[in-house]
């Protein structure tokens, strides 16, 4: 997987809370934004103008391909649970039904330890981002032990747009998750909700999956973090 090199400092903006605030307030667009920012859209949690609906892609470990249809069903149930989030309407995902599609663009997931503050899981810096807001990599236990260590799930950027000479906006988010964790209430309420641009729910999703009791595996609450240009690795 790609990593942020240590040469050119930039700010990488994790867009979930930032964009939701802009959507609610109807913030104006910056007429002096970087050229690539013509694709950037803070009026929707979809984040880019070439997306008209919430789409997720899923890529499973080779050993799980025989279970791909069932994995898709389980993710669909989690996404329906996320649609009960109180900010779902405010996120402006569009009128079309959210979809989950098999196969994700970009390089294959490398069999090495995921470092959330360094790794990029997906195409990286894009002039025209994909139509997928969220990339989900579902791993068997053996692969997960290599990539995640003792974690059940973690997230990393998948795609960026350059919106300023020194700012890259994360417009697609990747989740890497153990297959055995897909049905845990925390996966939908905290991880999947956050990965589509909604605030993670500490108290679970209303009326669907119940309370979330466990603490997050890693802290993803920061809205800004130092990052570096991912075009080289």
Automatic annotation (TrEMBL):
Keywords: Signal. Residues 1-21 form the signal peptide. This is Lipoprotein.
